[in-house]
Structure formats: structure tokens, C-alpha cells
Amino acid sequence: MKIAFLGTGIMGAAMARNIAQEGHEVVAWNRTREKAEGIDGVGVADSPAEAVAGADAIVTMLSDGAAVADVIRQAAEAIEPGAIWWQCSTVGIEATERLRAVADELGLVYVDAPVLGTKQPAEEGKLTVLASGPPEALDKLAPLFDAVAAKTVGLGEAGEATRAKLVLNNWVLAITTATAETIELARALGIDPQLFLDTIAGGPNDSAYAQMKGKMILEDRVGDASFPLKHAHKDARLVLDAAREHGADDGLASVIAERFARAEDAGLGDSDMAAIGKVSKASERRS
Ligand code: NAP
After folding, report:
1. What fold, for 2-156?
2. What is the pLDDT of residues 163-200, one digit of tens each?
3. What's the pTM?
4. Cα dihedral angle (61, 172, 278, 211), rounded to 10 degrees?
5. Which superfamily does CATH assign the domain made up of 162-286 to?
6. Is residue 115 in contact with ligand 1, taking CB distance under 6 Å?
7. CB of 169 closer than 6 angstroms to any ligand 1 atom
8. 260 lines ligand 1 (CB under 6 A)
9. Which residues contact 4 (CB under 8 A, 6 or more apart)?
């Protein structure tokens, strides 16, 4: 297949490389061109339109719904009618509806298939794809899903995967916040935070995500983002909006969203989401 890959940030660069490694022809475009250069087996285009010309499938892996809408519009003139659009950026429910309408307008087959996992699983081709859209399009994209993921979860109509992604991100955001705050509590109580991680390890209270983010915090590596905090903040807002819109309890989601907003205000947007612990102290909140 000929694939146009729009957005080669932390996730996109690794995904594009893994797709090219499976023998597909991949042409990438990225707003900051240098980030699309030097990816093994991947060609670079100067514009979204140049990337999508002649492509059987277009992949968007951009920061948010506004960026995706803008970039797909820039590509519009060169799109092959009937091409499949794999939209895998995390954009939330409303933007997914809007992007679906844009796809109809441009003659694209819309596949809503966000991914679960972070930088390392992306590099190792071990993401989870949440796949929703027309069954024939999902079948055609299956080799691409296999190239980037250890697991594909098949869902129904486009839109369903985005709703599932919000459910799963609620969990990821809560675990990361709880891990960071528990480490802060251990420090405040004079308990070695490593003891917390070692004690849960391998038991019913353990979580691979808690271990991964906990290690990052204890080794003071949160400045090197696997999942930029600004995107986690965006996701926390998307979860909160969805909970409110659909009448679900938003008690925890609202606290998490508020904390991520404070962290971004504090200049931590480009750090990893695990930097959330840096603003978890009640004393800082009061000041
Ligand atoms: P990233 O490294 O920050 O990449 C964001 C990409 O979007 C970059 O290519 C950036 O271009 C581009 N972009 C932003 N605004 C744009 C605009 N207005 N016009 C054109 N391009 C624009 O982020 P990432 O971690 O790869 O995340 C990408 C998406 O995947 C996000 O929706 C995120 O929530 C989701 N996601 C991330 C993870 C994770 O752990 N990292 C996991 C699952 C899902 P520049 O390079 O020019 O800035």
C-alpha cells in the first residue's frame, strides 16, 4: 500500500517507521520538517498535499482535532477519492464527529482508530489499536495495525473507538496522578517511595503503568517526555467534557483536569505527564 503519514512527532515517527518496515511505501509530512527526516524507509513530502497524492491510505497522528482538521484541509486538493483515512490522534467525541463530516465531504473513508501505549511501545510496535469504522476499511488497514500494535481491539462504527479511548485515558490519567501523588505522600511521611513501588510489584495492586511512571519520577527523568503533559491535559479535558455531556460522575476527572491545567500553567507542558507530581502539593495549590 502507499501510505501518507501526516504527523511524525513522538508517536507518529515510530509508527511510520514500523509501517515502512513491513514493506509499505510511506511518505511522511510534518510541520517541522526535520522531524520527518531520517526515519528509516520513509520518504518526506514538503506539504500535506504532496504526501497524500496517490496514497491508498492517509494516517493522521497530530496533537489535537484542530490540527487534524487544518492539515487534512491542506491535503484536500490531492486526495484520491475513496482513499482510507486512519485518524489515530486523540481528538475526543465532538472533533471526531466533525472530522467524519470532513471525510464525507472529501470522499475519504473514515476510520476512527486511536492508539493506546506510549513512546516505547510505539517504537517496539507494541501499541494497542482501538479500531472502528467500515469493516472493509478495517480489513484493508489490518496489516498497518499489525505493524504498529501487539493488539487490535475491533469496535463498531467510527466514533466508538474514540469513546473507548476516553474511557481508557481516564484510567491512564488517574493511575499516573495517583502514582505521582503517592510518591509525594511517601516522601512527606519519610517513607522511601521505592518501597511503595517494590511492595506493589507483582501483586494484585501492581500496574505496569505505575511502575513505568514511578521509575521515571524517582529517577527524575520527567523532562524527557514519552507522553507530553500538554497532551495529557488536553485528554483530561476531553474526558471531563465527555463525562459531563453524558451525565457520568466527573468527581475525579474534574480534579485531574484542574491539576493538569495547573501543571501546564506552571510551564510543564513539554515534560512527561508524570511531571504532574510537581504540582501535587497542597501548599503549592494554596499559594
Ligand atoms: P507530539 O510529539 O507533540 O506530536 C504532535 C504532532 O502534531 C507533531 O507532528 C506536531 O508538529 C503536530 N502539530 C501540532 N499542531 C499542529 C498544527 N497546528 N498543524 C500541523 N501540525 C501540528 O505528540 P505525540 O505524543 O506524538 O501525540 C500525538 C497524538 O497522539 C496526540 O493526539 C496524543 O494525545 C496522542 N497519543 C499520544 C501518546 C503518547 O504517549 N505520546 C499515546 C497515545 C496517543 P511539530 O512537530 O511541527 O510540532
Report:
1. Rossmann fold (3.40.50)
2. 999 999 999 999 999 999 999 999 999 999 999 999 99
3. 0.96
4. -110
5. N-(1-d-carboxylethyl)-l-norvaline Dehydrogenase; domain 2 (1.10.1040.10)
6. yes
7. no
8. no
9. 27, 28, 29, 45, 48, 51, 52, 55, 57, 58, 59, 75
